[in-house]
Amino acid sequence: NLYNPWPGVMEGVPASRDYQGGFLVNLMTKDLGLAFDNAVANQASIPMGSLARNLFQLHAGQGNGQLDFSSILRLYKPD
Question: What are the DSSP calls for 12-73, one per residue?
Answer without folding.
Answer: SSGGGGTT-SSSBHHHHHHHHHHHHHHHHHTT---HHHHHHHHHHHHHIIIIITTSBGGGGG
